[in-house]
Amino acid sequence: HAFMDCAKLTSVSMPKVEHIYDWAFMGCTALTTCTWGHNLTQIYGYAFKNSGLTQDIILPYGFTYFLGNEIFAGIKS
């Protein structure tokens, strides 16, 4: 739940992150841009649910899997 419901968070850059865990950015309605590096391999449930993401979601080569439900449910894109 690291940034859950951070209403003023607009952009995130995570060049070295490997996993994005449950509810990490859920409800971050102002979050429109999220970038990550080639290390990202897993995204867990509800991670970006109801966030403001509007950009295309591009996963790096070697991404392994989504684990959980509604990871991108309710985004604006």
A few lines on this structure:
By secondary structure, the protein is mainly β. The protein contains no helices and 5 strands.
List descriptors.
three-stranded parallel sheet, 77 residues, two-stranded parallel ribbon, mainly beta, 21% strand
Report what the structure shows.
The chain has strands at 11-14, 19-20, 33-36, 42-44, 65-67. Helices cover 0% and strands 21% of the residues. The termini are far apart. It contains no helices and 5 strands. It has a 3-stranded parallel sheet, with no helix packed on it. It has a two-stranded parallel ribbon with strand order 1-3. The protein is mainly β and 77 residues long.
Question: Uncertain spans, ≥5 residues at pLDDT below 50?
Answer: none
**H/E order of the elements?**
EEEEE
Q: In what order do the strands lie side by side in the largest sheet?
A: 2-4-5
The total of helices stands at 0
Percent of residues in β-strands: 15-25%
Overall morphology: globular
Q: How big is the Rg?
A: 11 Å
Total number of beta strands: 5
Could you tell me how far the N terminus lies from the C terminus, measured between alpha carbons in angstroms? 22 Å
Topology:
Layout: E1 11-14, E2 19-20, E3 33-36, E4 42-44, E5 65-67
Parallel strand pairs: 1-3, 2-4, 4-5
